[in-house]
Backbone:
């Protein structure tokens, strides 16, 4: 089976957060509680202050530390495709995986409102405005058309008391015809199987494909442009690679700053 | 759920410690089984052929995940000067006293059941009758199968200050080995007695049926992934505490400190509350009050399985000598951490130490910084 992987070209990423929005819509995320986040930082002081950003999905590691620590075996590595998923039926919300994950890509929303409410800023707690039925944590006003609740793979509206994370859009990718080297959003036959963040990326900074297939585009990109895995010293071996020509964040203004200094 | 189609052993997977948690290391039932038919693998507890239904696995199980019928004693007559004998099913009914408590095997009585018997029998001395067959019985062995449970029960009774005649005694009343049946009689054979015995047994049977139903009905069907991982109260633990409490009420003595495990949380605690989330019995509970959070501990529910100790990422939690910390039946607050505002995301978080930023923000920042370093180091 394929080992799905993602390549993010930081030279192309403009930090527009379209991936964040697409993911939130696709996966019915609570506002502000993003599986696919873009981290923003400012560095330095005026006049040489810099804005830096960094897109961060779940890295779907080959040897994930979150899986090793889960006490109830709720988090697991799917052998078909290499997804790291959470079985919401088994998760007890101990958050041990969140402590163990070196990339900080796991989420537990039950303690405090992310947007609104007493600690989350102005406005009401969004979960009280759209209360969830049954065990669901909330009931979003807009839901993905094919309403899917697949708790075994951690897909659907998140129930209360569990940890959630990016699934690499398991509900789409797992339906792709077997043997596909690349899931390219430009291919009309394949576009429905492409993860939401990849499909929506305006500057096409993201690529998604089979890392085990040497002929796939992702494999070639990693080889040609020296794809980098983050925090490799932890031994997690992420399946998300970053590319950069070393120029820094790819916005013209920042590049000029570099030239000036 | 039945473990084996031929053996009357009920099993509740959701109460079995190693199946609940990968941090639990429990093989009490396998070690207790005299014929070694139990085997545990990653997914299930399996039973081979040859179960004797002696109940020793159920007696050893700390969480009551296993149930074997025949061990709920029938109504015990408390006001009689004569000692109350406890006999095994192999002894023919005509050879033992009429009011004798009959169980499939004396080894199948757990400490809690012995103490419950003690509490129910009032002032009557209790005699575990040794017929001299245990050495020849496949459920027995070199030592009497009930020896360790009786020892433990007696130790607790001694600590309670119960008089020596209240302890459980072994009496040796040998019978010819020829009279010993090969196997422990089936429950059906034991219960299909004469009219009088039948009615006397009715009450016990009803309780028995409830006990077995409790464990078999709630077991998830094979392939059903809707497993409930909430805390569960160990029936054995409840039995021990409530029997001792009954005795304590009668004698006016305090409960022995050694029945309550004591836990201690050191300064290394970061208030992750993993211990409370992984505790199988709900003895450790996360609480929240007035903006502060922490972990509370109810010693009477603790079975000292050690899951919290192994699961704590900081190794901050551990057992203290019994009687030193929190040695009572009530819930005690072990930690209390005030919440404060994260300098980065502005959310309240409760964590020990004086970090201004909450753990998730710290991790994200650290990741981004390491990424910039790794990717753009040439430029910097």
Residues:
């Amino acid at each position: 089976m394929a080992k799905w992987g993602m390549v993010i070209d930081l030279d192309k990423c403009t930090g527009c957060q379209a991936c964040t929005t697409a993911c939130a819509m696709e996966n019915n995320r609570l506002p502000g509680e993003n599986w696919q986040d873009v981290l923003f930082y400012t560095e330095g002081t005026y006049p040489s202050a810099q804005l830096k950003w960094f897109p961060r999905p779940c890295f779907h590691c080959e040897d994930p530390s979150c899986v090793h620590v889960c006490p109830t075996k709720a988090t697991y590595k799917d052998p078909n495709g290499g997804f790291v998923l959470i079985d919401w039926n088994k998760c007890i919300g101990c958050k041990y995986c969140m402590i163990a994950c070196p990339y900080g890509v796991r989420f537990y929303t039950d303690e405090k409102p992310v947007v609104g409410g007493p600690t989350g800023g102005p406005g009401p707690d969004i979960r009280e405005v759209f209360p969830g039925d049954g065990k669901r944590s909330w009931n979003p006003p807009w839901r993905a058309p094919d309403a899917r609740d697949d708790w075994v793979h951690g897909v659907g509206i998140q129930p209360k008391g569990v940890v959630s994370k990016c699934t690499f859009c398991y509900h789409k990718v797992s339906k792709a015809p077997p043997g596909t080297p690349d899931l390219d959003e430009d291919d009309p036959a394949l576009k429905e199987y492409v993860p939401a963040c990849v499909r929506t990326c305006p500057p096409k900074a993201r690529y998604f494909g089979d890392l085990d297939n040497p002929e796939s585009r992702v494999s070639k990109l990693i080889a040609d442009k020296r794809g980098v895995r983050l925090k490799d010293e932890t031994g997690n071996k992420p399946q998300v690679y970053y590319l950069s020509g070393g120029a820094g964040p790819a916005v013209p203004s920042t590049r000029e700053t570099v030239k000036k200094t | 759920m039945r473990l084996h189609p031929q053996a009357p052993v009920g099993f509740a997977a959701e109460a079995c410690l190693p199946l609940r948690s990968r941090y639990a290391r429990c093989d009490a039932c396998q070690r207790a089984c005299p014929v070694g038919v139990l085997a545990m693998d990653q997914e299930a507890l399996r039973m081979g052929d040859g179960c004797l239904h002696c109940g020793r696995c159920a007696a050893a199980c700390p969480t009551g995940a296993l149930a074997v019928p025949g061990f709920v004693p029938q109504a015990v007559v408390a006001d009689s000067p004569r000692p109350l004998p406890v006999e095994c099913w192999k002894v023919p009914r005509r050879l033992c006293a009429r009011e004798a408590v009959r169980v499939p095997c004396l080894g199948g009585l757990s400490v809690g059941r012995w103490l419950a018997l003690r509490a129910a029998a009032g002032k009557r001395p209790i005699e575990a009758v040794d017929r001299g067959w245990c050495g020849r019985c496949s459920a027995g062995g070199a030592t009497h199968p009930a020896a360790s449970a009786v020892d433990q029960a007696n130790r607790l009774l001694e600590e309670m200050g119960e008089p020596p005649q209240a302890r459980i005694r072994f009496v040796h009343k040998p019978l010819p080995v020829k009279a010993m049946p090969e196997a422990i009689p089936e429950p059906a054979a034991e219960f299909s007695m004469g009219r009088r015995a039948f009615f006397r047994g009715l009450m016990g049977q009803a309780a028995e049926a409830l006990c077995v139903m409790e464990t078999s009905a709630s077991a998830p069907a094979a392939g059903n992934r809707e497993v409930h991982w909430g805390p569960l109260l160990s029936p054995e633990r409840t039995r021990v505490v409530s029997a001792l409490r009954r005795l304590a009420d009668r004698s006016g003595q305090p409960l022995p400190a050694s029945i309550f495990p004591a836990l201690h949380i050191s300064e290394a605690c970061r208030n992750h509350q993993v211990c409370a989330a992984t505790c199988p019995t709900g003895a450790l509970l996360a609480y929240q009050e007035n903006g502060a959070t922490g972990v509370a501990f109810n010693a009477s529910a603790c079975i000292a399985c050690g899951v919290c100790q192994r699961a704590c990422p900081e190794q901050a939690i551990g057992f203290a000598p019994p009687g030193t910390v929190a040695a009572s039946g009530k819930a005690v607050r072990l930690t209390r951490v005030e919440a404060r505002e994260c300098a980065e995301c502005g959310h309240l978080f409760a964590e020990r130490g004086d970090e201004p930023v909450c753990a998730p923000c710290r991790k994200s920042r650290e990741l981004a910084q390491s990424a910039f370093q790794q990717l753009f180091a040439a430029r910097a």
Observations:
- Helices of chain A lie at 18-26, 65-69, 96-100, 126-129, 170-173, 196-200, 217-224, 252-260.
- Residues 129 and 138 of chain A are 9 Å apart (CA to CA).
